[in-house]
From TrEMBL, chains A, B:
Residues in the signal sequence: none
Domain of life: Bacteria
Pfam families the record matches: Proteasome
Organism: Symbiopectobacterium purcellii
Descriptive protein name: Proteasome-type protease
Keywords from the named record: Hydrolase, Protease, Proteasome
Length: 242, 242
């Protein structure tokens, strides 16, 4: 399983992904699920993935390979994030179609995946898309400024309670990390390290990336403070009486 | 969908259930999912249900009808909660077997349900069981003093953070209501009113029941205080910095 969250806010974009993949509880590995494409002063694209690892790796490989060829449509050519989402969706369909057609027998294997694609291309504001296993997609709006993929339920309530479009990027990343912490505690198939990125609108800068490990002092501080804060808040609630 | 939670603590048992059932978003109704069987000074049994409503209603009807007959094994005859769970599991299998065999064609209908059975029978301590759609069951222990059925993920993190076996019944009910509140906010198929019950160990008293509606002053108070407490806690966390 996986948990990825991305937020599209007034100041820019926030991304956070876990890195655990598993095929059964005894086949666990670490794979980065956050991929960044950057061309100076022109575009920053961030792709997060959840689902079949063979599918998501192939999509990323094909997208990257094609960026080195001028003869094929690729992510360095598109002029809007919408066109980028269309291209990623088409690549997703291509991979799933290829891999599922190769099956000699009817198979119950799920080749599907969900992707989050966020970023900015010069001439546009930052945008964020959720691309479905069918290759179609939806875009984040002012009303719904964030998307989650993978094991999303445990970490959803905290985001719904605190995130608005005007939340600062630094607070939003704190919220994303708390959301992931709630998920880590409840689901073993979501695991550290985390890959996170802050993208400030109009910066066209991809340097806001960081890997958050088990002993990251900031993550440890907010996990502890959040847990204690929840417990203090709970202790102050009036007990039920009939 | 549904959300039910039950807790088996040092002081007794706590139960809370929503009441929404739905077959599609345009077919929503209110059904009580918490059923109490009581015989003075001898037994209190509480059954909560999630899943196919036809199945769960039939199980409750059969269990209640058979309590009025001395010739059939019933919940007034069993001498342990374990035997009660066995009987409920057998009734569950009987109903699912009956209804799924009646299908003339292969059907994708899910006749299954999950049940929580808690209570006390004279001679034993209070106990709590989770009965699966297969009719088998597990029992709550000191390490895992609570069970959830239905839409359980949104409301799990808060329980994991605050509940211990030594939590008082009144605090535990507060925790259960907060857990349900988190679920209500995230999933439309879980809805008010709630049916809740506190059972104090060795009381053999079923009077600790209450229906919690939208305008219940206690529920409104803790929802507001919890939401504000979370937001205050969040505001005090240090923002992320790269």
């Amino acid at each position: 399983m996986t948990y990825c969250v991305a937020m599209c806010l007034s100041d820019g974009l926030v991304f956070a992904s876990d890195s655990r993949t598993n095929a059964g509880v005894d086949h666990i590995a670490t794979f980065k699920k956050l991929h960044v494409i950057h061309r100076d002063k022109d575009r920053v694209l961030v792709l997060q993935s959840a689902g079949n690892l063979a599918t998501t790796q192939s999509i990323v490989s094909l997208l990257e390979t094609r960026m080195r060829s001028d003869s094929e449509p690729n992510l360095l050519q598109v002029s809007t994030l919408y066109d980028a989402a269309t291209l990623v969706g088409a690549t997703l369909r291509e991979v799933i179609d290829r891999d599922s057609r190769m099956q000699q027998h009817a198979s119950t294997t799920n080749f599907g995946c969900n992707l989050l694609l966020g970023g900015q291309i010069a001439g546009e504001a930052p945008r964020l898309f959720h691309i479905y296993p069918e290759g179609n997609f939806i875009e984040a709006t002012r009303d719904t400024p964030y998307f989650q993929i993978g094991e999303s339920k445990y970490g959803k309530p905290i985001i719904d309670r605190v995130l608005t479009r005007e939340t600062t990027l630094e607070q939003a990343m704190c919220c994303a990390l708390i959301s992931i912490d709630s998920t880590l505690r409840s689901n073993l198939s979501v695991g550290l390290p985390l890959d996170v990125m802050i993208y400030r609108a109009d910066s066209f800068d991809d340097s806001g990336q960081r890997r958050v490990t088990e002993d990251d002092p900031y993550f440890a501080t907010i996990r502890k403070a959040w847990s204690e804060g929840l417990q203090n808040t709970f202790r102050q609630l009036p007990p039920f009486s009939l």
